[in-house]
Amino acid sequence: MSHSLHRYGSVDNLRNDFCIYSRAARGVNRENCGDKLRCILEIYLSEEVVNFGSSHSGKCYLAGLKPEEYASSLDNSYGIIATFADREAVLGVLKKMKEEGLGISVVVSGLIEEVKNIATEAGLTLHTALLSLGTYGKKNLLPEDEVLQIVTMCGHSLVSSGLVRSVFKKVRSGEMTAEEGALQLTRPCSCGIFNTVRCQELMTQATDSPRNEDSE
Predict the structure, then answer these.
(1) CA-CA 20 to 30 A from 36: which of 114, 137, 166, 169?
(2) Coil, strand or helix: which one is 102?
(3) Distance between CA atoms of 146 and 3, rounded to whole angstroms?
């Protein structure tokens, strides 16, 4: 399953939030898959990509990972993830991957109906669908909704609630812009699934809304 599956939010603010994870499998197609991964990287970069990376790289694109540096490291990798904030970009990626026929598994995370529609437009049939069934247990221990929507954009939980609250406070006070705050929050997430476009929109909406300062 993908670690981007459990993003939290509303249908409206998740509508333009997609992750595409292309991964080779050990014993199947992982050996000498570097050239195929480089081809996939070129396809990602040919569309309006927001972010990309993988855990082996140590940092994501928005934290300073250079495409050429990353491409040269893909001989020692097995997968590459990219984040998009536009359905047409996702459609473009899937069409180009279909044309290349690389034989690499592709997982697209997003609202299920939207992903199905995009796949159909690209001439593809879904192989498997994984759904998040929600959150159970002591939900009172979770951070507030505006924070939870942002921390769940890092599937490895490297973006902390405390950091998000600190950035929110700086944005509200005018110490930094929502765009600057989103870039700061993406840096700990090395695999590249943190969507700064969505983060900036969420922070702008939250800071424009009246709020009880005692909850900070």
Answers:
(1) 114
(2) coil
(3) 20
C-alpha pair distances (Å), 165 with each of 8, 97, 171: 17, 39, 10
Domain holding 98, by residue range, is 11-121
> Tokens for 216?
């900070």
- At position 40, the amino acid (one-letter code) is I
Place of tokens 């994501």: 60
- 69, 114 contact by CB (below 8 A): no
- Res. 213: pLDDT tops 50: no
pTM, full prediction? 0.89
Which residue is it, tokens 């490297």?
A: 158
Is residue 40 included in any domain, yes or no? Answer: yes
CATH number, position 97: 3.30.70
What is the percent of the chain where pLDDT is above 70? Answer: 95
Domain count, the chain: 2
